[in-house]
Amino acid sequence: MNSDTAMEPVLEAHSLVKTFGRVVGLDGVDLELYPGEVLAVIGDNGAGKSTLIKCLTGAEIPDEGEIWLDGVRMNFKRPQDARTHGIETVYQNLAVSPALDVAANLFLGRELRKPGPLGSILRVVDTKRMRQQARDELAELGISTLQDVTVPVENLSGGQRQAVAVARAAAFGSKVVVLDEPTAALGVRESRQVLELIRSLRDRGIPVILISHNMPQVFEVADRIHIQRLGKRAATITPQSHSMTDAVAIMTGAAQA
Ligand SMILES: Nc1ncnc2c1ncn2[C@@H]1O[C@H](COP(=O)(O)OP(=O)(O)OP(=O)(O)O)[C@@H](O)[C@H]1O
Ligand SMILES: [Mg+2]
């Protein structure tokens, strides 16, 4: 589904400012994410893409500006606050725990407990149930590269680790899924799977924010494209309204939208 001006955004940012000492990461950025859409965020290195999504997802606290989720003002102080509100994020610098196995990583922070007092009082983790659900979840998401959910993540390839992080976001993101360069470390087949995953999230009605440098992928999967330049939003375009060449020209400042 494409954006519709009659629709209210699910997630909205107004005039976000974030500075790091004398470095301006965000310089008054607006963003709107509409129901059921894939919004790509593109821009050169250092344009503020990661900082923008960190502010939207509680990993950074903006100096100024507002964040609204379903029409309610949010004040996320940490990623867990955003997760509690149904926003799942895969950060650019991978957030998996290498020593834990695939299943434990999928359930990180949401571990299933054994039934009865063992679980409710002694907080004993139900490893068997988590492994079974992890297998089911991965199968459902079409992630076939991870055959054994009991393998510690440190033994996986970079792409497989990325797949675990993406699977976790897809499995638990109930309102919004945010992916910062999810295919950067992936091979052709795994990249395809991630793109399929993004589409299936959209089809389930969950909007996705996708940060990517991969223009063909962006133009293939995005409904709208937010172009970030020098800490500001330079334009929001669509694959129908602009070509890849146009997008790059806006990104680099050679052209305006
Ligand atoms: N924790 C930090 N401390 C200091 N400066 C930072 C920090 N995080 C980001 N910056 C700066 O803010 C600006 C925006 O960085 P950001 O990581 O958001 O860029 P980006 O668009 O994600 O780039 P890339 O495409 O390379 O991932 C850069 O100038 C960066 O150096
Ligand atoms: Mg980045």
TrEMBL record:
Task: Note the Pfam families from the entry.
Answer: ABC_tran
Per UniProt, which keywords does this protein have?
A: ATP-binding, Nucleotide-binding
Give the stretches traversing the membrane.
none
**Top-level taxon of origin:** Bacteria
- Does this UniProt record's set of keywords contain ATP-binding? yes
Q: Name one GO molecular function term.
A: ATP hydrolysis activity
Q: Does the keyword Nucleotide-binding apply?
A: yes
Annotated ABC transporter domain ranges read 11-255
Name this polypeptide is given: Sugar ABC transporter ATP-binding protein
